[in-house]
Amino acid sequence: MKYVWLIIFLCFFRVLSSQNSARVRELEKQRKEALAEIKKTNEILSQTQATTKDRLKRLNLLSQQILSRKKVIHLLEEEMGAMDRQISDMGTQISQLESELRTKQANYGKSLQNIYRRQTSQDRLLFILSAESFSQSLRRIRYLHEYASWQRRQGSEIIAKQAQIAEKKKDLESTRQEKSKLLANREEERKNLQQEEKGHKAEIAILNKKQKELQALIKRKKEQANQLNRLIEQQIAKEIAEAEAKAKAERERLAKAGNKGGKGKAASSLASEAGRKAEVKGGYAMTKEEKQLSDNFAGNKGRLPYPVTGSHSIVVPFGEQQHQDLKYVRTNNNGIDIQTSARAEARAVFKGEVTRIFTIPGYNNSVIIRHGNYLTVYSNLSQVYVKAGDKVSTKQAIGRIYSDPDNGNATILHFQLWKEKTKLNPAPWLD
Predict the structure, then answer these.
(1) Cα–Cα distance, 242 to 311 (Å, whole number)
(2) Which of 106, 281, 374, 428 shows a CA-CA span of 20 to 30 A to 42?
(3) Do the beta carbons of residue 305 and residue 374 sit within 8 Å?
(4) At 277, is the secondary structure helix, strand, or coil?
(5) How confident is the model at residue 162 (pLDDT cuts 50, 70, 90)?
(6) Which of 84, 75, 78, 79 is nearest to 189 (CA)?
(7) Residue 102 region, left (φ>0) first, then alpha (ψ -120 to 50), else beta?
């Protein structure tokens, strides 16, 4: 019974050790991902000059950097906690293995003493011949054979147990060394965080001194954003009207053809069901192919590729934002702003049709692509590779993103997503 509990005890600790190891690996993976985000943000910060025009962007990037850095430190601390539990489990396993080894060594020692007392073949022969019957002699022969086999197994098990203990101690030492490295990493990350927080405070102080200038820039940017929004809404209204006109013409044609065939009301009903249909009242009337495209687009939510090539980061999120550090700054973004590397290209997030290309101040060239009753908008392009009416495929390059020479070649795509006449936050749709 004692050995059964011993086996259960060891199995329990092996399961715990395995779970701790898996947790450490998962935490390490998350930490590496957070560090990759920090690296991307650093690259973007190096491209963003400290001008009044872009100090707000720098401040947002630094805030993002600080959050990522805090996440790394938190993950390091979790990782070290998991390693502490792993080290404790290993210590318990080693103690248990050493206890088992001592028991085996003691039993083996007793067996050697017995052998020493009966070390001659004559003693073994007398043991067999002194049996009261032939069957008892056979049992004694079998006993001696099994006893010898048991001794050999005990010797092998002792050697294996010693090797197991040595391996566990080696793993334990390796884990302790890894923990020491994590401690050093944590101290380095804390120093980095202190530097970033210092830079963050400096940016806030400068922007507070330039409040009027910054507010003027924000006002101008808001006017440009409103102009872009009006053009998109006009284009959507135009396409809805054109689609409805086509649907109406198709219904009238089918009804007229049906009436000529003498089918009357049945023909009119069939005509109303055929051709283009909108999902909502006043929405875009879609063909069956467009409806299928729209459904496929919606089905890929969370899996759409980013609309840029190269390393990238969202520098301005969607929606109305009250700046956490500058109380006089409130912004409203109809999409997301994605900063990427110089000479990067904009690419379609899904297959669709280019419906309009236009230019406005502050956003350079813009491209609208329709995907059924969804639309994606790609703004701030210096070059456009497509034209209205073109069919595009997923990830197809549609233009080069403008790199601002007055701002260290900062390369930012303004990206919007609409369904019918409603703006959506694109971030949850992207992979």
Answers:
(1) 39
(2) 428
(3) no
(4) strand
(5) confident
(6) 75
(7) alpha
